Structures are given as C-alpha cells and as structure tokens.
Known about the structure:
Chain A is an alpha/beta fold. The first copy, chain A, contains four helices and six strands.
Amino acid sequence: MTQDLAPGQLLARGVCRHLLQHGFVGIEEVVPAPGLRVDVMALGPKGEIWIVECKSSRDDYVSDRKWQNYLEWADRFFWAVGPDFPTDLLPPDTGLIIADGYGAEILRMGPESKLAGARRKVITQKFARHAALRLRAFRDPGVTASGICP
Amino acid sequence: MTQDLAPGQLLARGVCRHLLQHGFVGIEEVVPAPGLRVDVMALGPKGEIWIVECKSSRDDYVSDRKWQNYLEWADRFFWAVGPDFPTDLLPPDTGLIIADGYGAEILRMGPESKLAGARRKVITQKFARHAALRLRAFRDPGVTASGICP
C-alpha cells in the first residue's frame, strides 16, 4: 500500500496513527469550506478539532497560500513534516509534528484557539458526513465516496 | 461480498444505499450508550439523526427488548424489514422501510421527536468518531477499528 501514496499522504498516515494515541481520530482531505481542503482533520475525545497540514518539502510549504484560512476551522493547528524538513521556516506560533509513513511525534503543540459553538457544530457535522461517506464507499462497492455532496 | 453478510447486515446495506438518496449518510452498528447498539444510524444534511433497526424475521423482531431505548437517541426511528415480513406486528407509530441487500424504500416516515441540543452534540460526535475510526481501519492496515475507544 505504501508505494501507492504520495509523500504528503504518507505523512498523513503516520500523523493519523500517532493521533490515535492521543485519542484523536483523523481523516484525510476534509473540505471545511468551498476552496479549502485540509490534509488531516482530527476529532478528539471531547469534540476538539485539530487540523494538520502535511508538507513533504520546502517547496510544498512555500507554495501554500491557504494555510492561514484553516486556522479558523480548528482548535489547534499543526504542520507535519519529515525529519529532514527545515523547520526554521515554519511560523513559531503553530504546532509541529515530525512524521513518516509509519508514525509521528508532536514536537510542539499548536496554540489553542477554541472554536465558537456554532462553528464547532458545523465542522463536526462535516467531519461526520465526510467520514461516513468514505466509509460507505469501502463497505459497499455499490456506493462511491462522491455519491452525494458531503 | 453479499454472501459474507448476515440477513440483517444485508438489509442495513440496502437501507444505507437508499438513505443516500435522501441525503442521509448511514453507518452500521453504532453504540449511542453502553449496552445499546443500533443497526444503522444516519446523519442528514442538516444534522438530523435517524436510527433504523433491521429485522430479518419475525423472531428477530419479537426477541428485541431494547428498541424503545433507541428512540431517545434519534430524531426519527424506523424499522427495516424484508418484503415478506409481517409488518402488522410493528408499532404503527414508528417508521417503516422495506429493504433488501440492494436497496430500500421508505413506506412510512418515523414521527419526528427532535433531539435536544446537548444530546444531538453527543451523538453527532459519537457518530463522527465511530465513522472515522472504521474508516482508518480500511485506509490503514496498521490500525484496527478497536484501536481506541470510539
């Protein structure tokens, strides 16, 4: 399976494995609002929402013009990068995760910026429908993940 | 795949396929509270929660002692049964879906009994974590659906 994944997807897999140890369940490629697609969104045991953007290279990071738009959709925001990534590039007031395809480690927690209730409700429902729709496509070959609008 | 599913699971699959046409995404075997396990829980486009209990036979229905406990966890409650099921047995003030492994049809809407906000929040989070955890197990062979408590 590993060889089918792009570098960023491998990082996302390692991130999701590690987040489970913190009680957070992550899913990939969630769309919180039109035009935005986050690499990993994770839901914690108390309903916390974390967003993790996975950057496989310096260029991948430098070309990202959207990440600041993600901040308003999460209680905490993190970057996930490989062990060779020049982490000095990253803003110090964001979370930092070092990852590979098999696991990860949180080096710096993203500062907490709690979602308002109404927004948390919206994003939790989006998360739920996205996860359930993807799950259906795995469980039932008669359904596609794009079968209905998530 | 069909031959691996028990009769009730086949009904659940047909139900979930049909619910997608109503914009509801269903997942199987959700535990809203300890000791309760619903066959299908579905999340609607506005955050509505529907519960569907699948009964493959008269005996399956008669032996169910718990279904009334499910009512308080959903906005609407339905039975799903095969075309040969004696539907006169079922309480008239519950929803009714006729299903097989490939599809379903809602014959009678379950009456609406809207969840209170706090309970909706709890059950939506459970739904989300359950779906995401099951999805992880499909996407990543290194993770099991029982990896952490949903």
